[in-house]
Amino acid sequence: MPDIAHDPDHPISPQSKPSPIFFGRDGLRAGWGLLIALALIIGCFRLMAAIIRASHLVPPHAMEHAPGPLPVFLSEGSAFLVAALVTWIMSQIEHRPVSVYGLGGDRKISWLALGTAIGLSAISLLVFILIRAGLLIIDQRLLFGSEIARYAILWIPGFLAIGLFEEYLFRGYLQYTLSRGLAGLAPHISARIDPRAFGFWTAALLVSFGFGAVHGSNPGESPIGLLCAGFASLVFCFSLWRTGSLWWAIGLHAAWDYGQSFVFGVADSGALFGHRLLQTHPVGRPLLSGGATGPEGSIFCLLVLVALALMIHLTQPRSAHDYAASMPMPSIPASPPESDERASIAS
Hints:
The protein is built from eleven helices and four strands. The protein has helices at about 30-55, 70-95, 110-130, 145-180, 185-190, 195-215, 225-245, 245-265, 285-290, 300-315, 325, and strands at about 25, 25-30, 135-140, 280. The longest helix has about 35 residues, at about 145-180.
């Protein structure tokens, strides 16, 4: 259905014109959209948690002590469904295609596969560095025979669900809507600033800071671990900016966690998973080894993340499919707006 409220061929009477408090040139203001989405997410998460508890699919405290593949998949998969449902609802409210929030694009499978391969390689490199430096010791193998292949397959859906949920929650509707709103500030700072780039990267810093802060609730997390989580979020945002989609980041995120938790059996932000292939323990100063946080708590993790950012820069050049081109932003005038309505952050 066409948006008649924004069609110049359908004049609107003053009585039917949307309130400027709630609507700007590009529809519902970003601030109101974020508030509605937050309310929906809280409500849907509580409802989903109640359903899971009532169904007894995930035993109480199953996610707290070395969870297995099924509890992880059910918990993270249901969380992704909530994020996807809320995103779809907001796309209907704001009259935008749901694909603009990061899961669109023409190269979904290829970006996902490439991100997966790079993610496994990156975490393997980090673990190799720690082992060679004497900062990580492999104690023993925990799985044998057919159990290796069995759990190698069973863990895939769970870690894919983690990648989908965390990327879509933080760098889907949230990243897009913050970018759209903050882009309106650019003309008031300088006419030379690109509104889209300013909106995106300001939002990326806020989202990444929030992503790192969320990890602070994990037992065993450390300051370096929080810094690495925030920097990793910026790397994912960089890929989103270049490719216009989240699929590369989803593949890398899922494979990185899969390699950490199943293959190498190291702590992931302080958490250990059950049915892992290897058992390891850190040695030496936590700043170098990562300590109880795991490899993400090591200063060497930052070096690997910098290498990933450089790889994105070299292999994902700006093109017609990047974020700025594929994600529509507000049409902001080059000169500073004259009205208070246009000055709104959520235009």
